[in-house]
Design brief:
Elements lengths: L1 E3 L7 E8 L2 H10 L7 E7 L17 E8 L9 H19 L4 E3 L3 E4 L2 E12 L5 E11 L4 H9 L5 H5 L5 H22 L2 H10 L6 E6 L2 E11 L5 E4 L5 E4 L5 E3 L2
Parallel strand pairs: 2-3
Antiparallel strand pairs: 1-2, 3-4, 4-8, 5-6, 6-7, 7-8, 9-10, 9-13, 10-11, 11-12
Helix pairs in contact: 2-5, 2-6
Bound molecules: biotinyl-5-AMP.
Amino acid sequence: KMVEIKKILHNKIHYYEQLDSTNLKALELAKQGAVEGTVVVAARQTAGRGRLRRKWESPEGKGLWFSMILRPTIAAEYCAQITLLTAVAVVKALQVVTDKKFSIKWPNDIMLDGKKVCGILAEMALAADGSIEYAVVGIGININMSSEDFGAQLEATATSLYLATGIEYEHEQVLKAFLDEFDLLYSHWHCCGFALIRQDWLDYSCTLGHKVTVRDNDTEIYSGVAEDMDDYGSLLVRNAAGKIESFDFGEISIRSC
Ligand code: BT5
């Protein structure tokens, strides 16, 4: 089924009952030349992906599992901005829909009541000259996941819109709200740069100003207070000795919020 919505990104929405991963399908479509703004949604994913080959739980009908194809014209070194921009769009959209306050845990977790309600996974393909040929940004929003759906392990760290509000939101409504917010931010980003989006990100962040521990494969490698985020999306952390180190989000994870 394909739906046309008139927007700057001219989103074409492809719905599937089941996919291994909407990111994989979107990467395949992008490779075949699908236009920017193409969206792939699946009712369930059998191999939903997180970062670093982690798994994303995506049971049928319990969340909005989707990916969007982008063809950004920015230099590849700024590609982290895609995740940051998407996180801001998710927060704005969810705040409009639910009237709750959401925050961003660097780099890609959207938090509600201190638990993860949404994760974002951006993947890119580079052209021979090193520019971005296309990018796929995958978003998983837990809409009506219950405690049983999460299971004993995830229940402690994850939540859904339903668990936090008692309301079962329509997946379509959340998708439309996201696409509206994303469209505005994405066109702003292309015309006017990252500064305002960065400011929104800082306002929503629950990482900045807090103590963070930086881990590489579960080994703690650094700890301090997160002071700032630079234009490459790296986090600047000051340790007890006053030394500032920068961390990008390729290989590490942090504990904060
Ligand atoms: C992420 O990874 O948070 C990125 C998740 C992106 C998922 C979307 S769904 C649509 C698109 N298609 C895909 O295949 N992926 C994207 P990361 O930061 O690595 O977090 C993964 C960790 O979150 C796991 O190791 C679990 O601990 C936890 N987790 C798994 N499923 C979850 C869920 N539904 N809600 C909250 N936490 C979850």
